Amino acid sequence: MAGFNKYYYLYRVKRGKAVANELPVKEVLNMFFKRYHIDYNPYEESIKQEWNSLTGNIISKFTQSIIMKKDTLYVTISSPTVKAELNMLRDAIKNRINENIGKTVVSNIIIR
What we know:
Layout: H1 25-35, H2 44-62, E1 63-69, E2 72-77, H3 80-88, H4 90-101, E3 108-111
Parallel strand pairs: 2-3
Antiparallel strand pairs: 1-2
Helix pairs in contact: 2-4
């Protein structure tokens, strides 16, 4: 077939039924987001849950926002004392999050 590429499952053959290659849903979604230049991290929600479970209820009350951009986790904290404590524990929290997810997703944590 001339012009065959990995997006072939999206096109129809000129004669007959549509041809579809079987791909996992995760791979199809990643191809879709990449094709339309959408920045999407499938681990973002699980990272937020891990942050809340690792830091506990008290620190979660001071957490205003958790944003993931590429491989950096940006956390906004309202209390300066909690912010200072978390700055000392950044590496340990980063290692725990990556360990619990099972993949190196977070390479840096910036606490504001």
